[in-house]
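On clarity, I found the account of how folds are encoded harder to follow than it need be. What matters is that the chain and its backbone geometry are given together, residue for residue. The format is easy to grasp once an entry is in front of the reader. For illustration, here is how one protein appears when written out as sequence plus structure tokens.
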Amino acid sequence: MIVGIIGNGAIARHVREHIASSNHILGAVLLRPERRGEHQGDQHVYSVDELPDDLDLMIDCAGHSALSAYGAEILQRGTNLITVSIGALADQNLYNKLQESTLWGNAKLHLASGAIGALDCLQAARTGKLESVTYVGRKPPRGWAGSPGEQVIDLDALTTGAVVHFEGSAREAAIAYPKNANVAAAVALAGLGFEKTSVKLIADAAVSQNIHEIEAIGDFGSFQFQIRGKSLPDNPRSSALAAMSVVSKLEQLTNPIML
């Protein structure tokens, strides 16, 4: 496949490394217009209009603002899109716009699972009666730096114990914590939706990794699932599993036999 990438951060670099070692071809890198002139090479473009016509797929690695800025236009031109910015879909207007764009362009928006797993189990469970789904996100105090959690607790002073700084729906979490709640959004879309998925966010001085926990109860029975995530080596704020999930989704679209 000829693939384009949105962004040039840690996740984008991980995906580019995979493409370079695969049978895929990197066709373009889409960056913000204000970054024009910062990079050399023919592959860098600064608007959707500049993307080459022969792209088979675009991959969004640049966050909520990029999906909002470019997603609809990419889908309307008939180009399939993978995104890891699932939390952006908590904005119902954006969700509707992207859905309409897939129909207009006869394209698909593929959601990479990001820093979480077990979503296939959750998707299966929702075909029956799914009673409750709860997501708990636990990070070391500094992992919440720059988030609304700073307004609730003194992160620097939290050296022992754990403090809950958010409880609410997945929609509220994804909107309030756009850089921290992609996982909550992924869990919501796989299960009960944004309004009925419960979310709890915790700053915990006793942990050194980002910990994601899902609990679901329904006709199928119940399950509890936990992931202790590591970050990418060149950016402590980027989940290694999130980057890997993008690569996995890319390969799913090309493999003739899929699980």
